[in-house]
Amino acid sequence: MIIKNGKVLLFKNDDVVIEEKDVLIQEGKITKIEDQIKADGEEIIDATDKIVMPGLINTHTHIAMCLFRGTFEGCDLFTWLHKKIWPIEDKLTKEQIYDASIFSMIEMIATGTTCFNDQYFMPEETRKAAEKMGMRAVLTRPLMDTDGSDLNVRIQEFRDFYESRDENNDLITYSVAPHGLYTCSGNCLKKARDLAVEYNLPIHVHFLESIDEINSIKELHGEEASKVLKKYFDGIHTILAHGVKLNDQDIEVLKTMDCGIAHNPVSNLRLGCKIADVTKYKKAGITVALGTDGAGSGNNLDMFESLRTACLMQGGIYEDADRITSRDVIKMATIEGAKLLGLEDRIGSLEEGKDADIILVDISSKLDHISMLPNHDIISNLVYNTSGRDVDTTIVKGKILMKNRKFEQVDVNEAIKKVNQINII
Amino acid sequence: MIIKNGKVLLFKNDDVVIEEKDVLIQEGKITKIEDQIKADGEEIIDATDKIVMPGLINTHTHIAMCLFRGTFEGCDLFTWLHKKIWPIEDKLTKEQIYDASIFSMIEMIATGTTCFNDQYFMPEETRKAAEKMGMRAVLTRPLMDTDGSDLNVRIQEFRDFYESRDENNDLITYSVAPHGLYTCSGNCLKKARDLAVEYNLPIHVHFLESIDEINSIKELHGEEASKVLKKYFDGIHTILAHGVKLNDQDIEVLKTMDCGIAHNPVSNLRLGCKIADVTKYKKAGITVALGTDGAGSGNNLDMFESLRTACLMQGGIYEDADRITSRDVIKMATIEGAKLLGLEDRIGSLEEGKDADIILVDISSKLDHISMLPNHDIISNLVYNTSGRDVDTTIVKGKILMKNRKFEQVDVNEAIKKVNQINII
Lengths: 425, 425
Known about the structure:
Largest interface: A-B, 74 and 73 residues
CATH architecture of the largest domain in chain A: Alpha-Beta Barrel
Structural class of chain A: alpha/beta
Largest sheet of chain A: 8 strands, mixed
Low-confidence stretches of chain A: none
Distance between the termini of chain A: 45 Å
CATH topology of the largest domain in chain A: TIM Barrel
Strand content of chain A: 15-25%
Number of strands of chain A: 16
Helix content of chain A: 25-40%
CATH class of the largest domain in chain A: Alpha Beta
Number of helices of chain A: 16
Oligomer: homodimer
Shape of chain A: globular
């Protein structure tokens, strides 16, 4: 396959640049990025008036939560979880999780996400859906015990899930996910660590999302959050979801660990968690990537909204120009996301030798794009004036998952109809 | 004209409700909102799967600034104005202002705005464009004198502009616009007041947008901003653009005046002005409406982005649920906007007797709308998951300006081409 005539987004000398190049894809990998590659029988994808860029990486989500979209506005995190979400989640069925997973993967593919890091129950259903849809995913069976559930049962569910994996499908990788330091006992965190060591997997954990969490963690563990984190997960690659409430001491602790932050700007704002100072975290050398969180709090799975919101909201806490830019958030949604998930050797940038996880973004001059015209600065417009709807084609490991906004592996209307009929609220 | 089968957005008992009604329009006015209105030869607009709602009101913008879109990211307000924008603006031509105005009106109509409050030079060009496009607008020739320009010349330009108005066109109304308290001497503010009294027009002024303004105003006038405001504009209806930096004393002063705030969430974030506490302003009883500001700082003129961002960003300063909601921002973009512009008797809500400024927003179940499905809460989705692109039809005073995303009064492609060719950066 050759992607021809596109504006290719590359990372060069720490900058984000757009160059007119062709991209050759062979056996799922990018094998050449050059001017005018001659076709030799390959399928040609015409990318005229399109940006050719790495697929977006959603580093923290709960995709089946599309079922909660639009509900329970204006709650704080603890009220939202305990009073609203968890009681309903207890009643969800396997079929609902599967249908919601298919639906959310259509949303992600249609808005340019090629890889997501999920944390939800009945993950077999989400895995089955990912296999059908051709998406790249990091999956897990989350662990929690302060809610009274039997930790041994949960761990066995995780083992069963992990051990039933298809070793030939390297699109699906795994994490060990203790839900959060405020919902897991020390014993649970220790067992999670043991599993991560045993299977050589990263940890994926909610961390300092809301103000209430700070005290909850101290009460439960007798220590501050970052000390608890270090105690259990030092030396293990750890994906921290949120990290809104890091103080300077926390940042110092995180710098000594192999960890990074999945920043979820829309969800943080909607749940009234205030603004994570990711400008500061990045300056401290901590990896910061982007996510949407579930659609119950994050509204949708359109990573372009996360890019825009992440960039804008730093202007809510900084009054000088020394804060993250469009260029930074594009990296956060791609190469930094790959680093955070431990997949940077395979994805996150368009480079020869990497897997071909690529999206084509339509920037042609037409009425629906009037908000990005005149297009003086493609990078800035990509962040501020592009919607996931502008994604025309989505490719994972060289396989086309959507072309000209059409899907072949699934009946989109049928999938939408199914989820429209589920009413759990 | 009858709009049939739609979901009509109404304000009832202080709440926002959606009801299935028909809307009858006669001679530019809404004359009936009822179940199943029988047609008697009227044109039928089918609004199946569409929200029928008041046109959005953009209460602060500089529409010709689409020419600056995407440029100069990461500046603070003063650097941005003095070093970047003003030197370029000095070179703009009449033709460029006209073409940019037509272009921006296409963007506004295509994203659901039916009325805008503008402040820019060569307003004759913008007026000519508004007449061609059929838009409702509040226009002015702004006044400023600390930049060395001759105030008498500016005032004469304002008089010439105002006095050359077409009295038969009530879609165009006027304001007197001293640019800001930091750019206008006391003499300039006094003359502005005199003009507002003479012509019975509202004042439109930039007010406490950025932190630097606080001291600039004190240095220039020897008093705090809100005292200066009260001194010159007490008793005159005043539209305050921004009002980000109001302290509690300022709020008390504003409460004694006939004024309200045009809140521009995206522009404030992009220019690093931090977050206006509009939750507090509203609680104090101050009218708060919405705007985009110019596209140079506000990125685009899509009011749906302003709705979403305004609602979300309060979660950047509030950690409890007691902050503005989707319902509030819908009012801010419609009826509160009408109040702020002094037009609430004519527009801002769908009510019998008001002018028919109406938009139809497509919420049908399809791939491009997957981020709003399943649609458990139409109001919430209208704010969080709707884009200006979902606007299907735009009507001003009973006249269709766009139908099924098609324009008759202008060649859209030609208008886009013209502006794409202007390069002033």
